[in-house]
Amino acid sequence: MSDNPPLTDEELARARPGTGNMPPEMAAAFTSRAGRPKADMKRVPISLRIDPDVLETFKSTGPGWQTRMHDVLAEAARKLKAA
After folding, report:
1. Average pLDDT of span 29-44
2. Which InterPro entries does its entry note (predicted)?
């Protein structure tokens, strides 16, 4: 059982979102989305088969290994275009 009595229809009509009762900076913290900012160029999810040792080599470098793998592939693509 709750210690708070149910709200009346009049109280519900006067109710406002909680973010309206706080400074804008604080409200923004509650309404903004988490995660990294959107990239200028959207990446495409794919399925790729690679040797286990290649995968382990990249994973062993720690967080950010997928970005490092992307960088290696991007450099190889630049070299292929230049050839």
Report:
1. 78
2. BrnA_antitoxin
